[in-house]
Amino acid sequence: MAINLKGRNFLTLLDFSTEEIEYFLSLAAELKAKKRAHIPHRMHDGKNVALIFEKTSTRTRCAFEVAASDLGMHSVYLDPSASQIGKKESIADTARVLGRMFDGIEYRGYGQDRVEALARFSGVPTWNGLTNEYHPTQVLADMLTMQEHFGSLKGKTLVFMGDARYNMASSLMIGCAKLGVNFTVCAPREYFPPKALTVTCKEITQKTGASILFSESIPDAVKGAHVIYTDVWVSMGEDQSVWEKRIKDLLPYRVTGEVMITAGSQCRFMHCLPSFHDLNTGIGMEIYQKFGIDCMEVSDEVFEGESSIVFDEAENRMHTIKAVMAATL
Q: What is residue 184's three-state secondary structure?
């Protein structure tokens, strides 16, 4: 069956079938090969896209801008101070203006309702670059990276360690459920994903054969895993007053060399970045001065080790985002 995604929004992977997600990955691999072979692929020459960033970013912004350029498009970046969205002008009004000027709109910011409103009122394909609830472009990059390293996805096991309550773990759980990847959360019980979303994902796995498990035991959770995945312990926009409790609760779930050995030699380490694995950031040094720890969610040994594929993953943000824009425009 031919896949046609023209005109579709990309707001959450819940909106797409397994076959449609696989199509995004296939197209991303094709476009990546073309870029590496220096084969032009200006599929949308002359089109214009708006990139709205209420939360700043390195990888997401660069990925969208380079991908748009490769596709022949012009992109306009709107940072938190460069538009009146939600301040002097409602999201609905902003969307109706931008929809008349642009062929597509990317949004990175706060509640999922904001990107959904942009999609509803703009009339053009709208892409979720990150909201409080979901981060679907990251998961496409993660799945492409796993596919490259393991040859296939179905039946593989991904273990998420740490704070699994927010957008990253939620989106990984959806992506894994859709693609037949076994998903395990390894964390204190209070850091497990939202219950309603878990129920939805378990319903999806009845068709794909994946499993969704939760464990507070590191050895039980990680043994035999193909990927151990983690994220920063304080999400973007959260107050730093939560650091002390997070460090106390999650320090036992830091990804260390010992954890990787327990998992096995087949295991790879993944992280959506940025990562606090050393003291070479302002926040990393601040945490060290306050709490005396020289890394947080992952040790520098693991982050810089042979099992780490975080920079393959980071590069794939651009290729998968390109595929999303190419397919939906």
A: strand
- This prediction has a pTM of 0.96
Catalytic entry in 8, 44, 61, 108: 108
Q: Which of 59, 61, 70, 138 is catalytic?
A: 138
Catalytic residue status for 84: no
DSSP letters along 41-94, please? Answer: --TTTT-EEEEEESS--SHHHHHHHHHHHHTT-EEEEE-TTS--BTTTB-HHHH
Exposure b/e, 237-258, CB count within 10 A at least 16 = b: eeeeeebeebbebbeebbbeee
Q: Quick check: 184 and 214 in contact, CB under 8 A?
A: yes
Distance CA 96, CA 119 (A): 10
Whether residue 142 lies in the annotated active site:
no
**Residue 272 annotated in active site:** yes
Is 231 among the catalytic positions? yes
Active site residue 108: yes
Going residue by residue through the chain (329 aa), what tens digit of pLDDT does each one get? 689 999 999 999 999 999 999 999 999 999 999 999 999 999 999 999 999 999 989 999 999 999 999 999 999 999 877 666 767 789 999 999 999 999 999 999 999 999 999 999 999 999 999 999 999 999 999 999 999 999 999 999 999 999 999 999 999 999 999 999 999 999 999 999 999 999 999 999 999 999 999 999 999 999 999 999 999 998 766 777 888 999 999 999 999 999 999 999 999 999 999 999 999 999 899 889 999 999 999 999 999 999 999 999 999 999 999 999 999 99
Q: Which of 186, 201, 267, 272 is catalytic?
A: 272
